[in-house]
């Protein structure tokens, strides 16, 4: 991602706040990310905490952790911020973090849950 590039993804699932099945709109920027319910507007805010080159198993470790809520496993094909190649970016959203990892070079961004607004 260069500059203030924005990725937007939709993930249809049950909202943690209104409990309705609705699109959860995920916006990812270089330094922060948001997940907003399209039905009630409840928004979770995530802030960047770490960047690193990681092995693929880091995502598997997160997928296997016990969680109160479902773990969302998404993908987006874009140009990687690090290697500058078009590649699939794996995006994992858990109850406490959001992780983006390039399949080509392993460049990973970790966003930690910061706050929620309802």
- Residues in helices, as a percent range: under 10%
Strands ordered across the widest β-sheet: 1-2-3-4-8-7-6-5
Number of strands: 8
User: Which term fits the overall shape?
Assistant: globular
Report the uncertain regions.
none
Return the structural class. Answer: mainly beta
Listing every helix as H and every strand as E from the N terminus to the C terminus, the arrangement reads EEEEHEEEE
β-strand percent reads over 45%
Counted up, domains total: 1
Work out the helix count.
1
The major sheet is characterized as:
8 strands, antiparallel
Mean pLDDT: 92
Radius of gyration: 14 Å
Q: How far do the termini sit from each other?
A: 29 Å
Describe the structure.
The protein has 118 residues and is mainly beta. The protein has one domain. Helix content is 6%, strand content 56%. It is built from one helix and eight strands; from the N terminus they run ββββαββββ. It has one helix at residues 57-63, and strands spanning 7-14, 21-28, 32-37, 43-53, 72-79, 86-93, 97-102, 107-117. An eight-stranded antiparallel beta sheet has the order 1-2-3-4-8-7-6-5, with helices on one face. β7 (97-102) and β8 (107-117) form a beta hairpin. The termini are far apart.
């Amino acid at each position: 991602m260069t500059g203030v590039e924005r990725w937007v993804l939709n993930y249809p699932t049950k909202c943690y706040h209104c409990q309705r099945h609705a699109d959860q709109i995920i916006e990812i920027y270089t330094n922060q990310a948001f997940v907003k319910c399209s039905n009630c507007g409840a928004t979770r805010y995530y802030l960047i905490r770490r960047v690193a080159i990681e092995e693929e198993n880091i995502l598997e470790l997160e997928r296997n952790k016990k969680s109160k809520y479902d773990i969302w496993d998404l993908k987006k094909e874009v140009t990687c911020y690090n290697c500058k190649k078009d590649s699939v970016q794996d995006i994992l959203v858990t109850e406490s973090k959001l992780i983006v990892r390039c399949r080509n070079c392993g460049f990973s961004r970790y966003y930690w849950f910061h706050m929620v607004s309802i």
